[in-house]
Design a protein that fits this description.
Number of helices: 2
Distance between the termini: 75 Å
Oligomer: single chain
Radius of gyration: 21 Å
Helix content: under 10%
Number of strands: 28
Structural class: mainly beta
Strand content: 35-45%
């Protein structure tokens, strides 16, 4: 009798699990809207698909690069608008040591691991946990032990929320369940404040509130040094056009700026960047609690057919990916990204948009 009950319970559990799993695997589009401010997302990769906002004349444009169909994101190699992880950016040699164990990851950029591996968080279907069109949408994902080589099970949650007028908040959380593991999520949105179909971003003015960078080698892996930006093309302490000094660099900007070295006050929101575009009058201000931000000018974007058939080319958008320092698992002098069971990883971003 006990065996029959046990079998019945197991069958019911399998059926329920299958139903839930089928429901969780559905891919949809979710819009948050307040007035003329509208943002769309999909639970495939927890991607930000679009962000519509008026310019100084009241004309509404989409300022986020992306695709017309969700299916296009499945074959995307640009990470348009995606949440990337378990560890964003690069891990040198696709390996690291933790608590005496050497973890070998899945390399997907030469010998290195980029944005979580061959199938990172940008290439999975997230579960929709909560959705209110005038408020927020929350996506969750269970990252399993050994996924792309990373240790331990991790519960991940990302909430996008409209805050006030023309303000978007992003809250990323993660909880390791059974092993210490590196966690570093990032939002990989490509911005063009003139409009996603308007050409390059070289005339955008950028100000970055960071006086140092973490320099990299030819493979874009940090050397371990922390260097001042003064007297270099990386100096954006005062607002200047992106295009003014970009040609002094091989390819363009793709570097981590040091917002904070960690320590006390690490959970406080800091003003990180201000981007403005004179033709539209649009201005975007970014705040975060993270220690670094990757400034990337879409140097590797080549003839990608995007929304409305518009072809995105080099310098078609800019990324400001708040994060921990790249390859921190292999540099003891960098702020640690290791999160232990019982601890919570918390990453907050706030985007404030105006037009004058």
């Amino acid at each position: 009798m006990a065996k029959e009950v046990l079998v019945t319970v197991m069958v019911m559990w399998v059926v329920m699990y299958s139903v839930c799993s089928e429901e969780d695997r559905k891919i949809g589009i979710y819009e948050l809207k307040r007035g003329d401010f509208s943002v769309k997302f999909t639970n495939y990769g927890a991607v930000m698909i679009s962000l519509l906002i008026p310019d100084k004349h009241g004309k509404v444009d989409d300022v986020v690069l992306g695709f017309d169909s969700v299916d296009s994101y499945k074959n995307d190699t640009t990470y348009f608008g995606a949440i990337v992880g378990r560890v964003a950016n690069r891990i040198g040699g696709a390996k690291f040591e933790l608590e005496g164990h050497l973890y070998k990851l899945v390399p997907n950029e030469g010998r290195n691991t980029l944005h979580g591996g061959k199938k990172g968080f940008s290439d999975v279907i997230w579960t929709v946990r909560s959705y209110k069109p005038d408020s927020h949408v929350t996506f969750t994902y269970h990252s399993f032990d050994g996924e792309e080589g990373f240790p331990g099970d991790v519960e991940v949650k990302v909430t996008y929320m409209i805050m006030g007028t023309n303000e978007l908040g992003v809250k990323m959380e993660a909880k390791p369940l059974n092993k210490a593991t590196p966690i570093d999520l990032a939002l990989h949105t490509y911005w063009n404040l003139k409009g996603q179909n308007s050409g390059d971003i070289l005339s955008h003015d950028v100000q970055l509130f960071a006086s140092h960078i973490t320099p990299v080698d030819v493979h874009l892996i940090p050397t371990g040094h922390i260097s001042p930006v003064a007297g270099t093309p990386y100096d954006f302490l005062s607002p200047i056009p992106i295009g003014r000094r970009i040609h002094q660099l091989p390819g363009g900007y793709d570097i981590n700026y040091v917002i904070s070295s960690g320590g006390s006050g690490e959970h406080l929101l800091r003003r990180t960047a201000v981007v403005s575009e004179s033709v539209s009058g649009r201005r975007m201000e970014l705040w975060t609690n993270q220690v670094g931000v990757q400034f990337y000018t879409s140097n590797m974007l080549t003839s990608v057919r995007g929304k409305g058939g518009f072809v995105y080319r080099k310098y078609g958008g800019l990324c400001l990916e708040t994060q921990g320092f790249p390859d921190s698992v292999n540099h003891e002098n960098f702020p640690s990204q290791i999160v232990k069971p019982g601890e919570i990883y918390l990453h907050v971003m706030v985007f404030r948009f105006t037009a004058h």
